[in-house]
């Protein structure tokens, strides 16, 4: 199911709820942490360009499907000259008490295939706006889980996608231990 989660956004009959942070990041380094309820069906935790996140959920999903190829049909070579830009958003996929890690990443996993790792009690997200990089951590041991590039050409927001319901606690100020609860789909409160 976790592998299908990457394709689930294209033709899904489950409820999909996107929560976008109300404060956009436009400079510097930012860090926050969250606790995902292990009984959540499927949760994506990450960041994205504010404009692209809103656009993503307003456009029919078949258009943004990885199978959609906007090839013009001619072989002018113009398609070959484009430089690959970083993606407009980066999400860590969580479900069934595990984290799905993308292929080809520099992961420190005990799984020999590097596909899934157990869900830690807290996940830390660190965005380096100037470097255009987001890193995901086990916020208890501070072990890096995954790092990737993200487009920081505009305001970037924390984002959480709930597929089929889920819950998490967001720790806005890690040093002060202040928490805000986000619940989607009627899951019980976390202690």
What does this protein look like?
The chain has about 190 residues and is mostly beta strands. It has 2 helices and 12 strands. The protein has a domain of about 120 residues: SPRY domain (Jelly Rolls, Sandwich), CATH 2.60.120. A hairpin with a 4-residue loop joins strand 8 and strand 9. It is globular. The C terminus is likely disordered.
Q: Which blocks of ≥5 consecutive residues have pLDDT under 50?
A: 59-74, 104-112, 173-179, 185-191
Q: Report the average pLDDT across residues.
A: 75
CATH topology of the domain at 16-59 and 86-102 and 115-170: Jelly Rolls
- The CATH first-level class of the domain at 16-59 and 86-102 and 115-170 comes to Mainly Beta
CATH superfamily of the domain at 16-59 and 86-102 and 115-170: SPRY domain
Largest sheet: 6 strands, antiparallel
Number of strands: 12
Count of discrete alpha- or pi-helical segments spanning 4 or more residues: 2
User: Which structural class is indicated by helix and strand composition?
Assistant: mainly beta
Strand order of the largest sheet: 1-10-3-4-5-6
Q: What is the CATH architecture assignment of the domain at 16-59 and 86-102 and 115-170?
A: Sandwich
Order of SSEs, N→C?
Answer: HEEEHEEEEEEEEE
- What is the chains' assembly state? single chain
Specify Rg, calculated over alpha carbons.
17 Å
Distance between the termini: 27 Å
> What share of the residues lie within helices?
under 10%
User: How does the overall form come out from the CA principal axes?
Assistant: globular
Strand-residue proportion: 35-45%
């Amino acid at each position: 199911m976790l592998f299908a989660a990457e394709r689930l956004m294209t033709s899904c009959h489950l409820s999909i709820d996107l929560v976008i942070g109300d404060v956009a990041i436009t400079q510097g380094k930012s860090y926050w942490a969250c606790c995902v309820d292990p009984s959540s069906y499927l949760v994506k935790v990450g960041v994205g360009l504010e404009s692209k996140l809103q656009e993503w959920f307003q456009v029919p999903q078949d258009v943004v499907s990885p199978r959609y190829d906007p090839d013009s049909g001619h072989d002018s070579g113009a398609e070959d000259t484009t430089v690959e830009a970083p993606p407009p958003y980066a999400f860590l996929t969580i479900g069934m008490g595990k984290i799905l890690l993308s292929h080809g990443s520099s992961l420190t996993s005990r799984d020999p295939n590097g596909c899934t790792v157990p869900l830690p009690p807290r996940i830390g997200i660190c965005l380096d706006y100037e470097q255009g990089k987001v890193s995901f951590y086990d916020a208890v041991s501070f072990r890096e889980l995954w790092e990737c590039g993200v487009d920081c050409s505009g305001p970037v927001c924390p984002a959480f996608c709930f597929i089929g319901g889920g819950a998490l606690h967001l720790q806005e100020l890690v040093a002060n231990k202040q928490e805000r609860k986000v619940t989607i789909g009627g899951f019980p409160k976390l202690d």
